[in-house]
Each structure stands twice: as C-alpha cells, then as structure tokens.
Design a protein that fits this description.
147 residues; three-stranded antiparallel sheet; two-stranded antiparallel sheet; 4 helices; 41% helix; elongated
Amino acid sequence: MPELLARLKEHCGVVVCAGTLATALKKAGYVWKRTRHSLKKRDELQFRESQIEIKALVAKAQRGEIELAYVDEAGFAQAQPNRSAWTRVGERHMIDARRGKRLNVLGTLLSSGELFAIKLWETRTALFCCLRAFWDYWRNTWESRSP
C-alpha cells in the first residue's frame, strides 16, 4: 500500500489516505491477496504415459530386476518474498519467480534401502550437480560390490 500511495503522489500529484484508497479499490472490485508464483501447466498425455512407465519400473524393482531410486529435491530460498497486491475478485495476482542462490538438497532412497543425500548452494544447475554427485556415488558403490 505505501508503494501505491507514493506512486499516486509522484505520478498523479494525488495525496490519498490509505483507508480511502482501500475503500475505493474494494468498490472497484479489487481484494488484497498474496501474490503467487505462476507454474507451467503439465502435458496431460505425457503425464499419463509417465505414470504407466513408473508402475512398470516399480514392478521390476519389486522382482529384483533393477535397483530403483526414489529421488526428491527441495530448494530453500535465502529470502522468501511474501507479497500481496490489489487484485480483481476471482483473479490471481502472479509475478515471475525470482532466481538467486538457494540451498538445494537432494535425497535419494534406493529400492535396496540405502539412502543418499547431498546439499549444495547453487542456482539452476544445482539439480544437475546433485544428480551427477549421486550417480558418481552410486556407480562407485556398485563397482565396489562387484567381484
């Protein structure tokens, strides 16, 4: 609200009380909402095909034919924005997600019961780095078991 009041004063030369502005925005059909980051929509056909493929892989792992890895990645932002904005009723207010350094954690549970985890301060390449580190670890572990 302070930013909007400052812009009205700077660009329009209008000085308004915050309560008056809030009332006017409500009458114009706006509500105060938390801003959400927009997500891309999934390809439904590809999603269904992937579900079938995953079921087949789980069945192979249960029969002992393959070692299946359950992988999950989580990223933690250094500063999480919690913004709100005036938005028309029934609409979402979205902004582009900011990208910066994050703590990325990758955990992997193998169907054999082994657990592997790694954490990195990285940007977009963190998941690739984590997967590469996991692959190297798993390959070395697997090779050390071979006769």
